[in-house]
Specification:
8-stranded antiparallel sheet, 5 helices, 4-stranded antiparallel sheet, Rieske Iron-sulfur Protein, Naphthalene 1,2-dioxygenase Alpha Subunit, Chain A, domain 1
Amino acid sequence: MTVPPTRPAADELDNLHPALRRCWHPVARSAEVGSEPFRCVLLGEPWVLWRDSAGELKALVDCCPHRRAPLSLGCVVGDDIQCGYHGWRFDGDGTLVAIPALGEGATLPGAVKAGSPAGLVEAHGMIYLAPEDPVVPVPTMAEDGDESFLVGDLPVITTRGSAALLADNFLDMAHFPFVHAGTFGAEEERDVAPYEVVREGLTTTVAFTHAFANREDPGVEAGLRPLIQQRRLIYRFTAPFHLSLRIEYLDAGGVNTIGFFLCPQDAETVRVYSTLWRDDLDGDVERMAEAVAFEVAVVEEDLRIQSAYDLLSVPLALNVEAHTRVDKTTLEMRRVLIDLVAEAAR
């Protein structure tokens, strides 16, 4: 019997692939970072985030260059971060600005600098960090800022897994009746109708319309609309791990968008951030809470499979796995990742 490898081969994309350093990654929700140091881990490297006196976001590698203590154990002083071990202070660019033990007016070693990221931005309630010059665009959500949408954040989930495989799972349309039988999958058709994938740079979009049982629609119980209705699904993927699904209810009206943002922490761990945007709940926060709880249950069904994988990576050669016409979305995702690795290496 062949035993599957426990580590990915060189031609596979795992959570620590070097190309991922040249990408934007979600590392925190905006609301999580204030005037206190916030520690996060990305691609096996620790970072510390904080906001200065003007509320501007700052980030440095979470390692003091003096004795390598985590800067996140210190505190924010004015606009700077102060190490909790010896009080060395660094500004938001990583420049050393004070060494208390040397006294006032001391000459500071100019070569000492804390590591800083190539990019740091906030978008749709998330903080994104790029360790090195990014070759992908800053992720966006069309619904962000639209006041007609009610926003609901799922609890952040930390799981064993591969960010690439979790992205693959989000885009996969054939697993619903099997993985999600406890939530919505029991009512899903097993056949997946033909569809097309549109590629633009390192982003893909898929749109198709199908029939489904809309049990959430109050109009069904009131006799205004039939149970079986039409909905349009629009999947969008931007490398490396930024995904969304926009669900447009064509009979009942309204839109439900699921944002799915993945942070590869280390070789075997991923942080899953997910947000709902809905304009069909009439601003009802209780209904949004129910919708969030339902989506958490859906994600947990996925994680039962995803966290059990032995090999936590996606092949960068298309002949390693079997593919069918149903796998167009996930096959194109692999092509995007292959192109990403090539672009990052240039």
